[in-house]
Amino acid sequence: MRPPINEPDDQELEALVDDEDRGLLDKPSVPDDVKAEITERLDRFRDEELAEEIADGPPPY
């Protein structure tokens, strides 16, 4: 199933959420609305990764 047209797929999301984005959060010259968008993207990416890990079950012992 493909995501809606306006939503990035997993590959696009990974490209959007990278170290450069995280680095922008520390720069005072970056506007607050841009920082908020980056933070939202990072949170969404983290939540999706966590959901995948939970769906996969516990790691083997």
Q: Could you say which structural class the secondary elements and strand pairing correspond to?
A: mainly alpha
Largest sheet: none
Number of helices: 3
- One letter per element, helices H and strands E, the order comes to HHH
User: Can you tell me the overall shape?
Assistant: elongated
Q: What is the residue-mean pLDDT, rounded to a whole number?
A: 76
Question: Which bin fits the share of residues in helices?
Answer: 55-70%
DSSP strand content: under 5%
Low-confidence stretches: none
Distance between the termini: 33 Å
The figure for the number of domains is: 1
DSSP strand count: 0
Radius of gyration: 14 Å
Overview of this protein structure:
With 61 residues, the protein is mostly helical. It is 62% helix and 0% strand. It has 3 helices and no strands. The protein is elongated and about 45 Å long. The mean pLDDT is 76.
Question: Which key phrases capture this entry?
Answer:
mainly alpha, 61 residues, 62% helix, 3 helices
Strand and helix map with partners:
Blueprint: H1 10-16, H2 19-24, H3 32-56
